[in-house]
Amino acid sequence: MSAKKESFLLNRIKSVGWAFKGAWLLLRTEASIQIQFFIATVVTIAGFYFDISKTEWLFQVTMIGLVMSIEGINTSIEYIADFIHPEFHNSIGRIKDVAAGAVFIASIAAIIVAAIIYLPKLF
Question: pTM value?
């Protein structure tokens, strides 16, 4: 006898719950995401202060989401790599470096977007 299949809606609700749990865990335990969250808060306050345009908000929110999402993926890759091979290994180090590099690239792009939005308002 097979188990009763859960409804599509119930599965989606559970998925959102697990995603929220993961985001909360990331924010609560990872220093890098905490720093990025702080920066996101500062630029959000700056956005209200400088009354940035709707288009500027779209770029800002997109970059915040991009950087924080890639940081979450980077953290997941680090956890998986450490689980698979807890001791130091050159290949694992390379995997972690590449994942961190992805965060770095997204962060540089976010800094450029922030400069384009805020430097003209400051000077």
Answer: 0.87
